[in-house]
């Protein structure tokens, strides 16, 4: 099964070299879901699933890796631009049209350094006593602001997840949000050890999607969703397991 998926993905990548793009697909560096490998190629769990969906739909993509805030703005305002991997949250729901889920469900939690034994949290209200690193326009920023948290007060809005994890280990913030697979990769990529972190409070569960502006034609969204739905569930599960090993 894994060999078959590798062949399919190779064919998808080979076929992107000669055709004009039908859609622009923007993303950020967020391993293990979407990131550049050692050769500078866009890869990742969500990337592999989306490539297969686009191939099945017959749509030719132009993939671009951008800062999250810029990618988010393009996808929210420009027709034919899709952003991934994006958490589908109530705060974002009315601002986009959605394709997915690429990944059915992820648990988003607050983490602290284990050595920070002075931090004890059992509720969101208690978390307001501390400073939380969040990424600009990220789902956790929107979620926490909806719960009464304020940027510049108990939210430290960072331009990237890399900056957020550095501030946590440098003890310039008290907490950071994320899901376990991404946090492990993020810590490792920045020279830190995920085992030094401790989950202190679950925030919400949410699926990972691709999203596009309200101006994007429904026909494009339908084609992409149909392509995604045509991928056998066992193929997606095999991909998920390959990234968890």
TrEMBL record:
The cross-references to InterPro entries, in alphabetical order and at most eight, read: Solute-binding_3/MltF_N
SUPFAM superfamilies per record = Periplasmic binding protein-like II (SSF53850)
The UniProt record lists the Solute-binding protein family 3/N-terminal domain at: 25-142
Keywords, A to Z, come to: Signal
- List the Pfam families hit by this protein, alphabetically: SBP_bac_3
Q: Which residues form the signal peptide?
A: 1-20
**PANTHER family, per database record:** PERIPLASMIC SUBSTRATE BINDING PROTEIN FAMILY 3 (PTHR38834), SOLUTE-BINDING PROTEIN FAMILY 3_N-TERMINAL DOMAIN-CONTAINING PROTEIN (PTHR38834:SF3)
What is the name attached to this protein's record? Extracellular solute-binding protein family 3
């Amino acid at each position: 099964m894994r060999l078959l998926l590798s062949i399919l993905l190779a064919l998808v990548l080979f076929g992107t070299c000669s055709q004009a793009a039908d859609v622009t697909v923007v993303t950020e560096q967020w391993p293990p879901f979407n990131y550049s490998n050692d050769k500078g190629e866009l890869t990742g769990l969500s990337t592999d699933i989306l490539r297969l969906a686009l191939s099945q739909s017959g749509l030719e993509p132009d993939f671009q890796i951008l800062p999250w805030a810029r990618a988010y703005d393009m996808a929210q305002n420009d027709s034919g631009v899709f952003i991934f991997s994006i958490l589908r949250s109530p705060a974002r729901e009315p601002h986009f049209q959605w394709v997915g889920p690429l990944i059915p469900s992820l648990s988003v939690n607050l983490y602290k350094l284990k050595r920070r034994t002075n931090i004890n949290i059992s509720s969101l209200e208690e978390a307001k006593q501390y400073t939380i690193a969040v990424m600009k326009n990220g789902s956790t920023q929107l979620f926490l602001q909806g719960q009464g948290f304020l940027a510049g007060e108990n939210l430290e809005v960072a331009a990237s997840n890399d900056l957020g994890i550095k501030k946590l280990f440098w003890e310039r913030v008290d907490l950071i949000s994320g899901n376990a697979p991404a946090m492990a990769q993020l810590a490792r990529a920045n020279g830190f050890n995920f085992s030094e972190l401790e989950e202190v409070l679950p925030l919400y569960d949410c699926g990972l999607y691709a999203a596009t502006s309200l101006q994007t034609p429904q026909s494009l969204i339908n084609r992409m969703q149909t392509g995604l739905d045509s991928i056998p569930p066992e193929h997606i599960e095999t991909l998920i397991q390959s990234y968890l090993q």
